[in-house]
Amino acid sequence: MLVLPALGHAWPIASATIQHLDSKNFGQRWSQVFSNEDANIKLLMQTLSRSKTGTTLLKLASKKANTHTNDLLEHMIKSGAHSASDATIIRKTRNNTSSSASANSDQLKIDYRYSITIDREASIYTATLDLAHELTHFVFRQELNPYSKDFTLKNFITSIIEGPGGEASAYYIECKVWHELFRSQYPNKYLCEELTFSGNSSLKVVASEFYSLGDYYDDFMALISKFGLRPSDFPLIDRHTSPFISAVSDIPYPLAAAKDFIRLWKKSCQNDLKMQISTRGSAQLPQEHFDRCKDLLLGI
Ligand SMILES: [Zn+2]
Fold first, then answer.
1. 209 C-alpha vs ligand 1 centroid, how far in Å?
2. CA 65 and chain centroid, separation
3. Which of 47, 219, 258, 287 is the most core-located residue (most Cβ within 10 A)?
């Protein structure tokens, strides 16, 4: 169990260990419980650890944080304008004296730098669920490498919404934590009341919500058609309006994911071009790097 040091603040729990936090305080703004951000983050982690699902999630996340960053999980988490998790792609070039094409393709190494932010305005209740959501992304999401041939619009959108650690599973875990920890005190949480937590069928119910486009349906269809995709490529897409909107871009998730894909795709193609120029062609990027950039040259 995480135990906070006693901190001198005017809050009723200030001198107590976190596990003594009374549930009647769950409505308070999490970022203002203590004046020290580290203590507030530990407060959220401690609250999350009161649920069985949260405890498992924290163990897995701590292990991953330690493996990837050689640091503690709590050092990856910050307060911010909204709750989000981010994986920054870092491409490292290794010096390799061999001139064979296969050896040169090994010169490129992809790494990720992770960060998690939690909405500083949220209550302890909401922020704990947000933390469960973002940790699910962090632990289970398989980031697609924008320099690989698998980095396609269809793969990207599908992975963001219904892939391992995608939006559907993050909300599903959020619902499980709500069910275990908050249900009696906060009986209403959209969709969570309807889930049976029986695996795939519940996940599909959640995924359908994330594929709802409402007024953005036609914009999305116009965009995917530029990439040769059809509505049948996304069977769960519909015109239904859902409250699930990307907090970062304020539009439905499929469209937000498509815009993210285009941004990453353009950036990776520009980087390839820069690398070719700066190494005067000696980097010898694999053919697939150029294949995936040709649509960009054709003006999409
Ligand atoms: Zn999410």
1. 13
2. 15
3. 47
